[in-house]
């Protein structure tokens, strides 16, 4: 986010190669790091702090010395593990023997879902996604409600078949219509667009919960639009 110059060694002339505008600087991604006092011993900023300090002071000799000390400590630790037969188990990465590559253990490669995913954050080196879910109590109640209606539907169909089997055709009537009609096929419940297609009608609690969720969803969409306007 600063100026970059090209220096022509033969002529000594310098020209500006890159000079970002204030708009470009404002769009720069913010850097979020763990506070130094909260970092563990093996995090890069703490581990290489003496090398970094020497580089910032322009002391190349000191930086080289500190780098040698650090790498020698790592070699000695690896040698001790081999002698003791101790296996090194990385905390955040795992080795793929087929490709001989290391992969992050907690990678999440699924597409971002703007309707369900709220934010992505890192905690203790693990990337996590905060998601928007139906409350557990509503989910359990919805499942119970659906199961009850399915049971009633099956019982109704079974009773109807029994009556059809037991009824004998009358000699005085050629009416072929059954005394009960075949129940309509069951419609699957769907929460697309925040709407449910039920067998009969939703119980009052489900209806209230759905209305509440639709209000929350509308509020979230309004906030997202406001954020997009602010970014623009």
Q: Could you describe the 3D structure shown?
A:
By secondary structure, the chain is an alpha+beta fold. It has a domain at 90-131. The chain has helices at residues 22-26, 44-47, 49-56, 60-84, 136-166, 204-231, and strands spanning 4-7, 14-18, 93-96, 101-104, 117-123, 126-131. The strands form three sheets. Strands 1-2 form a two-stranded antiparallel sheet. A hairpin with a 2-residue loop joins strand 5 and strand 6 (126-131). Helix 3 runs antiparallel to helix 4 (60-84).
Question: Radius of gyration, rounded?
Answer: 34 Å
Q: Assess the beta-strand content as a share of residues.
A: 5-15%
Query: Given the structure, what is the number of helices?
Result: 6
Order of helices and strands: EEHHHHEEEEHH
Q: What is the overall shape?
A: flat
Mean pLDDT: 77
Strand order of the biggest β-sheet: 1-2
| Structural class by secondary-structure content | alpha+beta
Distance between the termini: 20 Å
How many β-strand stretches?
Answer: 6
Measured as a percent range, the helix fraction is: 40-55%
Largest sheet: 2 strands, antiparallel
Low-confidence stretches: 169-200
Organism: Neodrepanis coruscans
Pfam family, one: Oxysterol_BP
InterPro entries: OSBP_sf, Oxysterol-bd
Protein name: OSBL5 protein
Topology:
Elements: E1 4-7, E2 14-18, H1 22-26, H2 44-47, H3 49-56, H4 60-84, E3 93-96, E4 101-104, E5 117-123, E6 126-131, H5 136-166, H6 204-231
Antiparallel strand pairs: 1-2, 3-4, 5-6
